[in-house]
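tool=predict chain=A
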Amino acid sequence: MKYQILGQTVPVVEVELNRGETVYTQTGGMAYQTDGIEMKTNARGGIMKSLGRMFSGESVFMANFTAQVDGAMVAFASTVPGNIMPVDLSQMPNGLIVQKGSFLCAEDSVETSVTFTKRLSSGLVGGEGFILQRAQGNGMLFLEVDGDTIEKNLMPGEVLKVDTGNVVAFEPTVSYEVEMVKGLGNIFLGGEGLFLTRLVGPGKVILQSQNFVDFVGKILPFIPSNNS
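tool=predict ok
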């Protein structure tokens, strides 16, 4: 499999496949393709894994694109301005924990499954849900990043506190929990929300500069309503 990432504002990743090679995405993720690509939509991994994806905010069904000839191409686009980040999971034997909404597409040799954070409170108050996805395998994974990509390598015990919507992914060695912002003044006047994601090293953390949910909340008051 070969790939190239095109565009800067709302980029796409073009994946060139040889006969028999497959790449999959959520339903609706494909932007364009050449002749020689066969698409099949199914509950990848079975019903239980599909239900798990539903709880983690992803599609129940996955669209699989398989090349019928050498050199066939299929492209997947990001949904908002930002970046597409390629991750070679063969270099990450423990895989990667991915926030819902960050998965764009992956090779057929990559498996995604539901994983739970260690603390239930993280899911109840964290904004991103306590169910995340774990991606493992020997192939390429492509992540959708809103805004710009920021990578941090945390030392053992090093703490990074992040607005939950700015977390893209992290290595399984990084512990994850959610803590409440301290101080009533900060809670009611700070404008940063009630909770922060607390990431503790060691391990790699991938962040995004744009919290799209927060962005939508800021522009929503300026959108005309039918009652205006």
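The domain at 2-219 is CATH 3.60.160.10 (Double-stranded beta-helix). Helices lie at 47-55, 120-125, 184-189, 212-219.
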